[in-house]
Design brief:
Two copies of one chain form a homodimer. By secondary structure, chain A is of the alpha/beta class. Chains A, B: GO terms for molecular function: hydrolase activity, acting on ester bonds.
Chain lengths: 242, 242
């Protein structure tokens, strides 16, 4: 039966099946090969993510996922003393929480491909515009997230991936290699535009490919229609299903 | 844990997670509420679909899907004596195969919401253009599918839904209510444009809504972030998880 690839993260994962979203694009690429399971939780930080682990990834599962992306940090990096301080998790704890998540997944299945993704960069002007569009004059003048703070979390995410020998995607750095990344990749200074979604998709596909989890190499879950003899269809199904 | 909604069908279902696809749009709508599982099989007719039933919908499943769309007929209606006659299934058999599929799903779970979707109408000129673009001069002059033939299958699909008291979507009729349906809804005379995808999405959502399977009424699978106390997060998780 079809293997599962789980996308675990915050709102950037939860929204990944929107129009042009990176999750939907993965589902299309792995069509008939693997199920892409969205486990994105808007507003969640790594501290809250820990509460979900045993239910999302039961240790006694007979069919654990073959791969998972872990994509947190945008909420952990919300600043203290600002509107979203409720979400803040200190960067050292963020790193340790990520480590706990990875340990749990590896305990669930040592063979699981675990890919860490850093939070994206923050366009502070974009966040301010967004806050004004929602709250008008009541919007706080000081942004709830800064790019400098996001960098700290991104660096610890990459450092952990190196320590643990995991694949990783440094989205914080990658996006900023392109001029005009602020509007090109981010719709409100934080969430993804179609181009931002395309970048995440391409990076995930690249890492999966390098880790031998390429859709092209995976078998169809049932015979391709061209292999089915119209007069003796049972033959094709016996071959694959018995 | 999150309930499943299965989309079972042919290539129109398989492609439903492409850009603007109706499956991806459902996944986005039911985000945090239900998993949309794509079980579309390019080129499959109802005769071949029967071979998959026990693996896709095991009778001993402890968590069967809460709903399923059954969307076949476009291949069954391929004409005898034309290029795709290998896919042809007589219309009486198509109806009986659909009945067997529904019986299996209801045996799997009597409470499962089963929605029958008719094949879309066929734009024969569009099919011919498509064949020429792929096969050039070698393309057969006679189309492999006709709209008149598709109508027979659509009518039997709707008749079966009435006999069995099931929800149904008469896509064949619905699309043809709009002038210019041929190019507006169909990209190659058979598969869906973004507008065609939007129509299927809206029809499925409408039927689900009428059957009390509205995303708005379904619970989140874990607490919404606004319900989590930053200082005592465990409270919110105890309430929902115990």
């Amino acid at each position: 039966m079809r293997p599962q690839i789980v996308l675990f993260g915050d709102s950037i994962t939860e929204q990944s099946f929107g129009l042009g979203g990176w999750g939907a694009a993965l589902a299309d690429t792995y069509s008939r090969k693997a199920d892409i399971v969205n486990r994105g939780y808007d507003g969640y930080n790594t501290r809250w993510a820990l509460f979900l682990l045993h239910q999302l990834f039961p240790l006694d599962s007979t069919r654990p996922p073959v791969a998972a992306t872990i994509f947190f940090g945008a909420n952990d990096a919300a600043l203290l003393g600002r509107t979203l301080e409720r979400l803040h998790v200190p960067v050292e704890e963020y790193k340790e929480n990520l480590r706990k998540i990875v340990h749990h997944l590896k305990e669930c299945s040592p063979a699981m491909l675990v890919v860490l993704i850093t939070p994206p960069p923050i366009d502070e002007a974009g966040r301010k515009e967004y806050a004004r569009s929602v709250y008008g004059e009541k919007a706080m003048e000081l942004p709830e997230r800064t790019n400098a703070e996001a960098e700290l979390y991104a660096k610890q995410c990459i450092a952990l991936a190196k320590e643990m020998g995991l694949c990783s995607i440094d989205l914080w750095s990658k996006m900023q290699e392109t001029d005009g990344w602020q509007k090109k990749f981010l719709s409100d200074g934080l969430h993804l535009t179609p181009e931002g979604n395309a970048m995440v998709y391409q990076e995930v596909i690249r890492v999966f490919y390098e880790a031998w989890l390429s859709a092209g190499e995976m078998p169809y879950d049932f015979p391709h229609h061209s292999e089915i003899d119209g007069k003796n269809p049972e033959k094709a199904f016996q071959r694959q299903c018995l």
